[in-house]
Specification:
It is built from six helices and two strands; from the N terminus they run H-H-H-H-E-E-H-H. It has a single domain, classed as Arc Repressor Mutant, subunit A (Orthogonal Bundle). By secondary structure, the protein is mainly alpha-helical.
């Protein structure tokens, strides 16, 4: 099966659309230039489709709403990197080190440490001693953190379902396929930096 068509018809179209939208923003910063563009070029923050702090498409998918209102992509968990950090911990089969989280989330180690500290202060994660090396700590999601991740996921799903209101089942399938192909093409054209 060719990569352009992979994912077509595989699973729920809402899940495929959510995954494609997430992949458009994955990496936490634009892959085609400095983290915030050239000096004074803040408008590029958020990738090729975002306005100032606007997630992949601005508006309801980021802080682009009136007065910086948060949309469904930032339900309580805040910025995209923090949401990814919590999602990684939710998906992991064990607690993770800050270094592991940094790599998984796509941020540097100091940024990961700040994200972890903010999540600790909100009660979303806890630090615990690494049983293999008492000098190190591991990060574990709390019950509140897990509930937050699941609430954010439900909120995103409701937003996508609402946006698809009026689409036929065939239109939903086709849109999911085309958006997935577009996201895959964009990743090929602008691969993440190693």
């Amino acid at each position: 099966m060719d990569e352009q068509h992979s994912g077509a018809g595989d699973g729920d179209p809402v899940e495929r659309i959510e995954a494609a939208l997430a992949s458009l923003r994955r990496g936490g910063r634009p892959q085609w230039g400095a983290p915030h563009g050239e000096a004074g070029e803040h408008r590029r923050h958020g990738g090729p489709f975002g306005g100032p702090h606007g997630g992949p498409f601005g508006g309801p998918f980021g802080r682009g709403g009136p007065g910086g209102a948060r949309g469904p992509w930032e339900f309580r968990v805040g910025p995209v990197a923090r949401a990814r950090l919590l999602a990684m911990l939710d998906a992991a089969d064990r607690p993770m080190s800050v270094t592991e989280l940094a790599g998984a989330v796509g941020v540097d180690q100091p940024r990961a440490s700040r994200l972890v500290q903010a999540a600790v202060e909100e009660g979303l994660v806890v630090r615990e001693a690494d049983p293999d090396d008492a000098r190190r700590t591991r990060i574990r999601l709390t019950d509140d953190g897990r509930a937050t991740v699941h609430a954010a996921s439900s909120s995103r799903r409701r937003a996508i379902e609402s946006a698809l209101d009026g689409f036929s089942d065939e239109d939903r399938e086709r849109f999911a396929e085309l958006l997935g192909r577009f996201a895959a093409g964009l990743r090929r054209a602008h691969p993440p930096h190693s």
